[in-house]
Specification:
The complex is a heterodimer of chains A (about 375) and B (about 140). Chain A has about 375 residues and is α/β, with parallel strands linked by helices. Helix content of chain A is about 30%, strand content about 20%. Chain A has one domain: Peroxisomal Thiolase, Chain A, domain 1. Chain A is built from twelve helices and eleven strands. In chain A, strand 2, helix 2 and strand 3 form a beta-alpha-beta unit. The longest helix of chain A has 15 residues. Chain A is globular, with a radius of gyration of 19 Å. With about 140 residues, chain B is mainly beta. Chain B has one domain. In chain B, strands 6-5-4-7-8 form a five-stranded antiparallel β-sheet. In chain B, a hairpin with a 4-residue loop joins strand 5 and strand 6. The chains are: A alpha/beta (about 375), B mainly beta (about 140). At the A-B interface, helix 4, helix 5 and strand 5 of A face strand 4, strand 5 and strand 6 of B. Strand 5 of chain A pairs antiparallel with strand 4 of chain B. Bound molecules: zinc ion. The site of zinc ion (ZN) has 8 residues of chain B, from loops.
Chain lengths: ~375, ~140
């Protein structure tokens, strides 16, 4: 961005329902999310001149919505893609390529109604040749591969891994839209079925249908919309490995790509972790918030498990984290980055179901692929 | 049905080596970088002066999961999916075989030796077993 806070979110909304939606196609989930975000910003198709989405063509979606874009983008590098798209769209608006961008996510990830059609592991790719032959069956048996090493290196117990899900369940208990609303316990998490040792069901994300979208424009126009603007203070992104070849990440415990994305985001925002009031870290699995808190610089390496187990990220804690309940308890459609951003926006707008008092800044961090890419965004309700 | 990878022109030598019982890596003749997966240039310095060589087959167990949800075509019993650290430097995803698929039997840092699992007449995938018997 040319300057901090030069771009703002002026509309944001999720699909009417999230969870099991067998009567809506993947494309229509995109459209419903887009229409809801446009309504939140009081905009019509003719007001939008830029569009970004993933797993459907941005040109197809624009045409479906009756939008004639002068800028479009379709980064599809996994669940954080929509966070990357916000960063890219902000640059495009600053550059004058477009003025009002719709960033859209819809995903029939559970019911699989006419999509989504993923292209992650194409025949002949490294993933196809050097990961697929080993019998991984979904992210739970690939994304999780480094965790036993992490637990060994940093003396993290299975109870502490379970405590991540427990803390987030306490947020979800306050959220009427969360798919799992019961506040769970460490014993209950450790009694849930084994999926891929050491990961049990309740340490793994939900599988849902749904979507969400947001509208971006330049900050000088942002006060003309019904909702208070949410300014983009900073952003970052980085990547380190093939989507499926998690073994290529050079240091899986202290990954460089996470530090790079965080450094870009904090530097562009002119902030440090101490300035952040609220955090969303994409949790496909219970270890993701641990490695996120450490890689982003909120804690030193090895400190996160004890920090979460002590309740510091739960309701009433000093670093509210994943306050919608996260991918573990709220929803996860296969890609979760847009949902994490929606909760950051709700919190800085002051309209979250489990609202934290006095949130001025929120950091949202997501992963793409199985630990192969990431993106970071810092938002605020105050223009710098 | 077992998943059969699609071999490309740039990886054919690797799979032909595996069929002979060799784990082939590549090393850059300019900067010395040893890398995997295979490609006809060095991902560190972009040199095309790279050579293929047979690795020792020795590795250690870096990390793993025990997959309790086998994909279609696999036996129903839980099995390991691992990251192994090759003696030459690169890490790779693999399976640990010829030992109980339990946390007690699968100790981090245990020494491993490569072996090959036949998927078809053309495809033998490198997997790893405990090294005690080998050396
Ligand atoms: Zn080189």
């Amino acid at each position: 961005m040319k300057r901090r806070g030069s771009i703002a979110v002026v509309g944001a909304a999720e699909t009417d329902n999230i969870g099991v939606i067998p009567d809506t196609s993947n494309m229509q989930l995109n459209a419903e999310a887009a229409l809801n975000a446009m309504r939140d910003a009081a905009l019509q198709p003719r007001d939008i001149d830029g569009i970004a989405c993933g797993y459907v063509s941005p040109v197809d979606l624009a045409s479906y919505l009756g939008i004639y874009p002068t800028w479009y983008e379709g980064t599809s590098i996994g669940g954080c893609s929509w966070i990357n798209m916000v960063r890219h769209a902000a640059a495009a608006i600053d550059a004058g390529y477009c003025s009002t961008v719709l960033v859209v996510h819809g995903e029939s990830g559970r019911s699989r109604v006419a999509g989504p059609y993923y292209g992650h592991v194409e025949p002949g790719s490294f993933g196809d040749q050097f990961a697929n032959p080993y019998g991984w069956s979904g992210a739970a048996s690939m994304f999780t591969l480094p965790v036993l090493r992490y637990m060994s290196e940093f003396k993290v117990s299975e109870e502490e891994l379970a405590a991540v899900a427990v803390a987030q369940s306490q947020w979800a208990a306050q959220n009427p839209r969360a798919m799992k609303r019961d506040a769970t316990t460490i014993d209950a998490v450790l009694s849930s079925p084994m999926i891929a040792y050491p990961f049990r069901r309740d340490m793994c994300c939900l599988v849902a249908d749904g979507g969400a979208a947001l509208v971006l424009t330049s900050a000088d126009r942002a006060r003309d919309f019904p909702k208070p603007p949410v300014y983009i203070l900073g952003s970052g992104e980085a990547a380190e490995s093939n989507v499926c070849s998690i073994a290529e990440v050079r240091d899986l415990l202290r990954p460089e790509f996470v530090r790079v994305s965080a450094r870009q985001a904090f530097h562009s925002a002119g902030l440090t972790p101490a300035d952040i009031d609220h955090v969303m870290i994409y949790d496909a699995f219970a270890h993701n918030p641990l490695q996120g808190l450490e890689g982003l610089g909120f804690l030193d390496y090895g400190e996160a498990a004890a920090f979460i187990a002590a309740g510091h990220t739960a309701p009433g804690g000093r670093l509210p984290l994943n306050t919608n309940g996260g991918g573990l308890r709220y929803a996860h459609t296969g890609s979760y980055g847009m949902f994490a951003m929606q909760e950051s926006i709700r919190q800085v707008r002051g309209e979250a179901p489990a609202q934290v008092r006095g949130v001025r800044t929120s950091l949202c961090h997501g992963w793409g692929g199985f630990y192969s890419a990431c993106a970071t965004l810092i938002l605020s309700n105050e223009q710098p | 049905m077992t998943h059969l990878p699609l071999i490309t022109p740039e990886t054919r030598h690797f799979w032909e080596g595996a069929g002979r019982g060799e784990l082939l890596l590549q090393q850059c003749g300019d900067c010395g970088h040893v890398y995997f997966p295979p490609r006809p240039f060095c991902p560190r310095c972009a040199s095309k002066n790279v050579k293929v060589f047979a690795a020792s087959g020795r590795a250690t167990l870096y990390s793993y999961v025990i997959n309790h949800r086998p994909p279609p075509g696999w036996p129903k019993e839980p099995f390991s999916i691992a990251i192994v650290a090759l003696a030459e430097g690169p890490k790779m995803v693999s399976n640990i075989v010829e030992c109980p698929q339990t946390p007690d039997a699968l100790a981090l840092d245990m020494p491993l030796t490569v072996t090959f699992k036949k998927l078809s007449d053309e495809i033998f995938v490198p997997v790893f077993r405990p090294a005690e018997r080998a050396s």
